[in-house]
Amino acid sequence: MAKVIDGKAIADAMMNELAVRIESLKSDHRAPALAVVLVGSDAASEIYVRNKIRRCEQLGVRSIEHRLPETTQQSDLLGIITSLNNDEQIDGILVQMPLPTHIDEKRVLNAIRPDKDVDGFHPVNVGRLSLGEADAIAPCTPQGCVTLAKSVLGPDLSGKRVAIVGRSNIVGKPAAALFLAENCTVQMLHSKTESPQQLAAQADILVVAAGRAHLVDESWVKPGAVVIDVGINRVQQPTGSKLLGDVDFDSVTQVAAAVTPVPGGVGPMTIAYLLHNTFQCYLKSVG
Ligand code: NAD
């Protein structure tokens, strides 16, 4: 049976360490500050934002909330981002996605100052990450995937074969860049890939971010592999709604060496890296 990777415990340890570092800087500097912008009242977004803000408070990070109505005009949202960009007391800006359909998400993400882009979605940060530059702000979930793999395999992932299912800009592609930076051999699998199972089953580390509940069963997994399940799929079952990963946990656990659960695997790491990125921006800002 596979080891269950406890993402919550790893994220908690990371955040406790951050809290100590933030506390130690308190006497000489202002607290780090994260601005969170939520437009509309999407139920899942509300929960994500609430969790992020709660964590900020626990760590001593000041959170500044901008809750805007669904009808907010793009120009007004861009105006708020400009004022946050110019506010030297703000270290990070997070605009919760998805935005209402009348707002151009790309335009909004591109308006965030790259050195305050704690999600790592701005083209400047995407470019820096793909160039392997040290000052790139990398997206949170992919950083969590690398850390979870290292929690099992140790800090040196050099030479490991990694297969990533999903090629989105927020998970799959940046995860590929980060594993490549760890000297892994990376293969991207997506909806047009032929025989994805066979390719996935060659990987030492299998990252699944397809948004398809229980897509991956044991036939995709090399015996002894580490499986990182990014998927969060809310499905209706006779007993009510349930969160399912992209990985069929009960099947994969028969062959893998280690696997992340959903919930309690990648999810907590995403928030931990949001706080990590905010702290890195803060360090640059306060010198
Ligand atoms: P997306 O829809 O943008 O991309 C999905 C990708 O999966 C696409 O590239 C597509 O080609 C690929 N894909 C779809 N079906 C496939 C199949 N049958 N075989 C191979 N590839 C297939 O999704 P996303 O934004 O990258 O998110 C993926 C999942 O991760 C979602 O369930 C999302 O909710 C979850 N997610 C979780 C976190 C977290 O913190 N845990 C963060 C971000 C996203």
From TrEMBL:
Keywords: Amino-acid biosynthesis, Histidine biosynthesis, Hydrolase, Methionine biosynthesis, Multifunctional enzyme, NADP, One-carbon metabolism, Oxidoreductase, Purine biosynthesis. Residues 5-119 form the Tetrahydrofolate dehydrogenase/cyclohydrolase catalytic domain. GO terms for biological process: L-histidine biosynthetic process; methionine biosynthetic process; purine nucleotide biosynthetic process; tetrahydrofolate interconversion. GO terms for molecular function: methenyltetrahydrofolate cyclohydrolase activity; methylenetetrahydrofolate dehydrogenase (NADP+) activity. Pathway: One-carbon metabolism; tetrahydrofolate interconversion. GO terms for cellular component: cytosol. It comes from the Bacteria. NADP(+) binds at G166, R167, S168, I232. Its EC number is 1.5.1.5, 3.5.4.9. This is Bifunctional protein FolD. The gene is folD.
